[in-house]
Automatic annotation (TrEMBL):
Residues 144-164 form the C2H2-type domain. Coiled coil: none annotated. Zn(2+) binds at residues 121, 129, 144, 147. SUPFAM superfamilies: Rubredoxin-like. GO terms for cellular component: mitochondrial inner membrane; respiratory chain complex IV. It is a peripheral membrane protein. This is Cytochrome c oxidase subunit 4, mitochondrial. One of its GO terms (molecular function) is zinc ion binding. Belongs to the cytochrome c oxidase subunit 5B family. It comes from Schizosaccharomyces cryophilus (strain OY26 / ATCC MYA-4695 / CBS 11777 / NBRC 106824 / NRRL Y48691). It holds the Pfam family COX5B. Pathway: Energy metabolism; oxidative phosphorylation. The keyword Glycosyltransferase does not apply. Keywords: Membrane, Metal-binding, Mitochondrion, Mitochondrion inner membrane, Transit peptide, Zinc.
């Protein structure tokens, strides 16, 4: 009796597995591609028009709908999302130059919107020593105690931001 029940289950599953479509309609793909291009163009235009913090307030969701991230984001989060949609990197998140060793005459420059930044040095060439964390500030360069590479901060923020 068990053999009969088991064979019926297997027989029932086979037609279901064969009936699942494994293709994606072309019209669906084209629709999303065109919609993505429109969103990218509007994001680039909105990013170019943002001159002050009040320009980075999203419109919010329409009544009866759940808002998307871009509709409800504000401030720096909205700036980052708009830049990502426009194909730009808002906060310069690429890794530092690890192809050379920084010297006092030619340090590795670290950009920041704050007057200090925490960085990790893994040596030159990359990975030659364990990761060493340091805090670099805008007043003087910082030397890695392991490999001797020198890092200097380039402050791109508002100089009067800390004055309230």
């Amino acid at each position: 009796m068990l053999r009969t029940v088991f064979s019926r289950r297997v027989a029932c599953l086979r037609p279901l597995k064969a009936s699942i479509p494994s293709y994606r309609p072309l019209s669906f793909t084209a629709f999303h591609r065109n919609k993505h291009q429109e969103v990218t163009k509007s994001a680039a235009q909105e990013l170019a028009n943002a001159k002050e913090p009040s320009d980075l307030i999203g419109p919010g969701g329409r009544e009866g709908e759940v808002p998307t991230d871009i509709e409800q984001a504000t401030g720096l989060e909205r700036l980052e999302l708009l830049a990502e949609l426009a194909g730009q990197d808002a906060f310069d998140m690429k890794p530092l130059d690890a192809s050379r060793k920084g010297t006092l005459d030619d340090p590795i420059v670290v950009t920041s919107l704050d007057p200090f930044r925490h960085i990790g040095c893994s040596g030159s060439p990359s990975g030659s020593h364990n990761l060493t964390w340091m805090t670099v500030n805008e007043h003087k360069p910082r030397r890695c105690p392991e490999c001797g590479s020198v890092y200097k901060l380039k402050y791109n923020g508002d100089p009067h931001a800390s004055h309230h």
